[in-house]
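WARN retry 2 of 3 for item q-0093 after timeout on previous attempt; input resubmitted unchanged.
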Amino acid sequence: MDRVTIANTSTSTSERLHQAEMPRFGLGVYLMGEPGECKSSVLHALKQGYRLIDTAMAYGNEDEVGQAIRESGIPREDIFVVTKLRQPHANSHEETLQRCQQSLENLGLDYMDLYLIHAPPKDLNARASVWQGMEECLSNGWTRSIGVSNYGAHHLDAMLSYATVMPSVNQIEINPWLQRPALRAATEGIGAKVMAYSPLARGHKLTDPGISKIAVSLGCTPAQAAIKWCFDAGAITIPKSNKPNRISENLDSLKFDLSGTEEEFAALEESYVSGWDPTSEP
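OK item q-0093 returned
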């Protein structure tokens, strides 16, 4: 499994701190709320070779992610766990610390590998203190790295005024119908890696004639073509599925060579947001 080095870049020295090796492909577990659903999905993914699991307190399944990790028999250090501070909980330095501890208790783990702010705090005046809380979680060893999710370029730029270290990752919706070159460039410009959620646009576009034509030419499914496009764009990619065959099929996406389809993929761009879009909030 390909890995990439993530780091939190110092705003004073530009030094890359708290470096960690992160798998470039993983399983997202959004909307896995039925009892046992998330646990069985994570166990199957780990058996197939996945080593990155992306959860969040908002998903209500951190406990099952932790159970699956323990039951898998795979050494903890070989699995990269991402979870997130809920936007409604992103209110203060102190609450950030409390919620991080709560996530660790839910997971049943001593540390997480990456802790993200799920979306920019609604209270603009709280953004500095929340990030400073994230920095304390990092210095306390509760997480190996800290980052953000759903941050627009203006949010990232504003962080330069209050952050000691910048995010290592910005997790945003990216897919062939929402390619976001400017936001990807802004993310990379602060020393962070782009992480792509909803690489299938929540399934909304899988019958699109354009992606279907590309898939036929490649000998893969439309879903596999979309996932591989995200991966080849340089994003850490986390398709969500609770179906064992789809979890395996998604991993097989990485085998396909998209050479020669660049123009066809470029033509799919339509700035289509399949879910929420906090990147455009003030």
